[in-house]
Amino acid sequence: MKRTICLAMIACLFSCGSVTKDSVAPAACGPFGDPSAAVFSEVKPNCGEGKLIGPWKDADRIDRYACLYEPKSTGANRKLPMIVYLHPSLFSAGWITQTNILDLQDSVSLTDDPKNVGYIVLAPQGRKTTHYYPFPDNKGVGWDNWYRQLNPTGDVKTGDTTWRENADAAAIDHFIAAEVATGKVDVTRIYVSGWSNGAAMGYLYAVNRPNIAAAAVYSGPDPFGAFDDPCQQRPVAGSPENKQQIQIFNPAARTMQIHNACDIGGICPNGEQLASELNAAGVVVDDVILDNHHRRVYSCTDSCGTDPKAPEKSTASTMGSIIGLGNHMRWPKEWTTTMLDFFRNHPLKTTP
Fold first, then answer.
1. Nearest alpha-carbon partner for 320 in 2, 88, 7
2. Sign of CA dihedral 50, 51, 57, 61
3. 343 near 81, Cβ under 8 Å?
4. Which terminus of the chain has a lower count of CB atoms within 10 Å, N or C?
């Protein structure tokens, strides 16, 4: 009963609009979308049975960490696939235990050899920053998918202006490189997964990193435009024509998004918008929509939001918002094996 009341109150915050968030100054939109997020502090995760990696200082001089989970039996000189998991906002890297990704780590093969079971899981940790999400998610732990300078070469200079690489992308780069340097990773099978804000960042990262073979994420807002983001952009494979477009550097990435027909804040039609935009840029998207019982369906539920921009003042009904929040907070465990099968079937085509 208490959980139902809590969900109802939070859902109302997402759907009622007028008093749900602190005021945010209008952003000065640049060629890479919004300015970098304001940073409040580092976050040191509790990795549970995993290994804490770090600290490593990012460009903002913030200590960054990651959790590392290796299968029980790695075998001598055996290189393993690796899944990079990005946590939801307001939660830490240790939230991976709310999925069953680790439960399958010692029994599933992500290679062509069914006997070669096991995969590494790397879970980088975000920072406490500002977000362009409705209250209570307008600030807190998360990922900055609004500043979209993810050029794989790093910082970019135009004229007298240097555009620094997205600090979260740089941190993910660092922890992936550190694990690859151990010699344990099959570099043709590095994959990305994520949940909610982590799914948005995972998508943005995967379509910009040629070393990522595939991404399969759950319930993520469109990282190029959702909620009250004032600097929404359209992804393109080539040079952008204006500030309303942003170049992606890995349109060859195979991607899967799983989201709910009734999801929080209109994420379902927003996800359909993302699939359409990425398809236009040459990215192949496997789009999977689930009903309230995690059965596959092929359309969004109108009562849970119809606007593909997923505006801050949601078009969802109060009941639709409650159901959508409940769905959003549950990882679809029945579909994890489908995500893992997707990874196994999509290794990197060329060795990086």
1. 7
2. positive
3. yes
4. N
User: What's the confidence (pLDDT) of residue 14?
Assistant: 46
Say which residues have a Cβ less than 8 Å from residue 184's Cβ, sequence separation at least 6. 70, 74, 79, 80, 120
Contact present, 164 and 59 (Cβ < 8 Å): yes
Tokens of 142: 């998360």
**DSSP reduced 3-state for 206:** helix
Burial class (CB in 10 A: 0-12, 13-18, 19+), 316: buried
Q: Tell me the domain boundaries of the chain.
A: 28-344
Mention every residue, 6+ apart, whose C-beta is less than 8 A from residue 16. Answer: 313
CA distances from 317 to 20, 91, 132, 170, 302 (A): 16, 26, 22, 39, 9
> Beta strands of 51-100 (E only): which ranges?
51-57, 63-69, 80-86
Amino acid at 335: W
Cα gap 8→4, rounded to integer Å: 6
Residue 223: is the preceding peptide bond cis (ω within 30°)?
A: no
Pick the CATH number of 28-344 from 3.40.50.1820, 3.40.50.620, 3.20.20.140, 3.20.20.150: 3.40.50.1820
Q: Is 310 left (phi over 0), alpha (psi -120 to 50) or beta?
A: left
The residues with which 30 forms a beta bridge, in sequence order, are 33
- Preceding peptide of 136 cis, ω within 30°: yes
Residue 303: other Cβ atoms inside 10 A: 16
In the numeric block, the tokens 């393993």 are attached to: 80
**Contact predicate 109/344, CB 8 Å:** yes
Question: Partners of 217 in the beta sheet?
Answer: 257
User: In this predicted structure, what is the pLDDT of residue 352?
Assistant: 59
| Average pLDDT for the chain | 91
pLDDT in tens, 223-280: 999 998 999 999 999 999 999 999 999 999 999 999 999 999 899 999 999 999 999 9
Closest by CA to 194, choosing from 214, 212, 217, is 217
Q: Specify the 3-state DSSP secondary structure of 317.
A: coil
